[in-house]
Each structure stands twice: as structure tokens, then as C-alpha cells.
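STRUCTURE:
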């Protein structure tokens, strides 16, 4: 049975691992706000379990089993967020901290039942894919709204962060997942955008547009 600390390290690995399946001790140290010797000690422990390939002063390579273990923690977190929104009527801006606590429940049956009650969702309330029981995760090919051009309509699909203040801002702007966003104007000076959301117009700063992920409407 994994400790809370071990699970937090696994989750950090999930979020930080590159396409080359590597992550550095320094990146994990900054992400978790822990000292590098502590990270080294944990990676040595993970290496004995064959979750990582660890060598001093080299990037840490994540094994397929390590990725599966890490994805299971994220699966519990994202399922919990979805359950809180869909079954308990929490706002999407209020679920992260609660999920942080519940993700450490060790009962696999508990989360399997949650998955069943939700009818096996593929995405969490923020549009991020939920890993399946084998750790397989759906690849998404999305664009930041800030990378898009005028004259096209996009579907709001996900966010890059689930910060409470940011999500509250989106709620106030009536920007929900699945909404169509038409880019009407991009300011040359600061790259802010005038957009149409449904029947209403809004001005979104470049900072906000960089945190909104979209796909082009076909």
C-alpha cells in the first residue's frame, strides 16, 4: 500500500514527464517544494520497484509500470472531481482541493463504483482525460486559444490549469466546456481577443487565452 507521500511523487511524475518519458530531480523538487536529496531518496526507492530508471546526475526515465502507477493516482483524482460536479453539484472551481484529499483512498472498489455511477466518463470537469484502469490515457490534439486566428469558430474543450480564481472567472464569463468561441478581433498591441460566446461578446486577455484549450469546429 502506497503512502500519501509516494502517491504525491507519482502524481508529480505524471504531470512533469516529457514525451521522452523523462523528468529531472530538479523539476520534481520544484513541483513538490521539497529538497533535492529527498527526491533522490524517493527515486532510488522507486527504482527498486522498477517504476523508474535512476542514475545520479541524469534525467530519470519512467518505465511503463511507473507510468501506469502514476496514472492510477491521477485517475482517482479526476474521477473524484467528476463525481463532485455531476453527482453532488459542486462548481468546477470547487472540486480540486477535495479531490486532493479523496485521491488517497486505497480502495480500488470505491473508485470502480464511482466510475460506474458516472457511466465511465472519458474526461474530468476541466476537460482533462481520465486514465482507464490500465493507465491508458486519451491523447488530445488541442490548441491554446491564443494560438488561433480570427474568422474561425472553436469549441472550448479544456483548460491548462484548474486554479480556483481562473475557473471562477470563466464561470462569470459564462464560458463552459463545449461552448463555441468565435474570434472576432485580435488586438495587435496586447493580443487580447474580442470573441463571441453564444449570443454575447467578451474581451479576453492574452493571459486568459493562453489557459483555454480549444479545437476547431468542423
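SEQUENCE:
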Amino acid at each position: 500500500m502506497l503512502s500519501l507521500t509516494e502517491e504525491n511523487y507519482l502524481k508529480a511524475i505524471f504531470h512533469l514527464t516529457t514525451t521522452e518519458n523523462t523528468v529531472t530531480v530538479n523539476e520534481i523538487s520544484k513541483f513538490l517544494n521539497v529538497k533535492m536529496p529527498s527526491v533522490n531518496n524517493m527515486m532510488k526507492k522507486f527504482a527498486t520497484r522498477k517504476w523508474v530508471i535512476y542514475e545520479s546526475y541524469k534525467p530519470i526515465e519512467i518505465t511503463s509500470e511507473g507510468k501506469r502507477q502514476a496514472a492510477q493516482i491521477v485517475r482517482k483524482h479526476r474521477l473524484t472531481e467528476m463525481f463532485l460536479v455531476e453527482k453532488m453539484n459542486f462548481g468546477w472551481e470547487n472540486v480540486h482541493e477535495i479531490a486532493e484529499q479523496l485521491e488517497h483512498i486505497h480502495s480500488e472498489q470505491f473508485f470502480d463504483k464511482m466510475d460506474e455511477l458516472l457511466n465511465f466518463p472519458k474526461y474530468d470537469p476541466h476537460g482533462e482525460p481520465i486514465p482507464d484502469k490500465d493507465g491508458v490515457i486519451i491523447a488530445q490534439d488541442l490548441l491554446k486559444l491564443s494560438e488561433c486566428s480570427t474568422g474561425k469558430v472553436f469549441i472550448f474543450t479544456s483548460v491548462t490549469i484548474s486554479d480556483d480564481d481562473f475557473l471562477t472567472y470563466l464561470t462569470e464569463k459564462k464560458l463552459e466546456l463545449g461552448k463555441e468561441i468565435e474570434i472576432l478581433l485580435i488586438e495587435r498591441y496586447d493580443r487580447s481577443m474580442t470573441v463571441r460566446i453564444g449570443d454575447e461578446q467578451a474581451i479576453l486577455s492574452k493571459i486568459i487565452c493562453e489557459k483555454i484549450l480549444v479545437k476547431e469546429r468542423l
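REMARK: The longest helix spans residues 64-86.
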